[in-house]
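User: Just a sanity check before I run the rest of the batch. Below are the structure tokens for the first item. I only need the designed sequence back.
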């Protein structure tokens, strides 16, 4: 199974805000914390998660939570060429396209998201798994 995974914003929000999908998101984050996978996000995801954390907990706590998260999750850059590729792709959602093609550029093995439209638009180079699918594949190995 993949050792380098990209985490969509919803996975992080499920984990930090303890939303309905918290148990599965927690298992994925535990894999990252324990060094069993390398997890990555983009600055855009830091922005999205930071926005919701600030709304939920205030600015100081949001920064503290993000800094804790970034101890175990790496941030990869979106460059100009990646942006152009993403915008020319068949992925309709601009944010998804940017995240997906950034992950491809950085040679991530699997993209984890609950977004079914993104899963349908994925190419063989980078499969998109739901959190449950990812954990099931991990158990197979």
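Assistant: Here's the designed sequence for the first item:
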């Amino acid at each position: 199974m993949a050792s380098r995974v990209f985490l969509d914003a919803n996975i992080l929000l499920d984990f930090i805000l303890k939303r309905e999908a918290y148990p599965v998101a927690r298992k994925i984050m535990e894999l990252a914390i324990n060094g069993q996978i390398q997890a990555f996000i983009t600055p855009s995801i830091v922005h999205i998660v930071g926005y919701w954390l600030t709304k939920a907990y205030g600015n100081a706590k949001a920064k503290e939570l993000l800094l804790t998260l970034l101890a175990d999750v790496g941030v990869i850059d979106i460059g100009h060429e990646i942006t152009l590729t993403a915008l020319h792709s068949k992925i309709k959602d601009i944010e998804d396209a940017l995240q997906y093609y950034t992950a491809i550029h950085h040679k991530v093995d699997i993209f984890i998201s609950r977004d079914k439209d993104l899963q349908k638009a994925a190419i063989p180079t980078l499969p998109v798994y739901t959190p449950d699918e990812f954990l099931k594949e991990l158990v197979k190995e």
